[in-house]
Amino acid sequence: MTTRSLTLFEAHVTPLIGGFGRTSAVMELLRARGVATVEGLDTRAKVLAFAQRVMTLVPHPDSDPDALTTIRDRGAASRRPGLAGLGTGELLAHTERSSLPRPPRLMLLVCQQPAAFGGDVLLTDGRALHALLMERAPRALEVMAAPGTAFYGDGGGHPSRIFTRHRGERVSIRLRQDALAAFSPSSPPTCPTSARRSKRSSSASLSTPARAI
Length: 213
Prior knowledge:
This protein is of the alpha+beta class.
């Protein structure tokens, strides 16, 4: 009999206490692996209460009054720049709120209703991506890490780069691939493509109601 391998999210489920993931276990898993799965968040009130325990809520331009953002198909509006995540089309790999000086370092995604088809959540291990590019495309990586080689957002956006190296071995990634992204002429046209191709190497599906990552 063939044993099914655990998905990424199944392998990172934290213990439940009273319908909530134990905060200490969640944070420990996040620090160690960068992802944690919590089950039992079956009401908006529970989602909001849990989020307030583990993170600082930052309102999104399209968020609701309680600072949570309901992701649903908004029809023709989703074809406007920056709103692709609110439609049914493909959403290319990106850093959430990339146009801000300091994008959020922690996100909570909750599945309220599984999609009839599609709807997969694609995640990438940023450290593994950086290591892969260092091995296979070091020149492209150096260009993507150069200051001022990317600009994200509209006129009030943020000049940046795709990769930023910090003290120790920490690397942060800032990327978007829509009409609100512009890259320096000195940046080879293969750079965003290299990042996109590598980012697609890691994916997982979040399709269980009340499950969150």
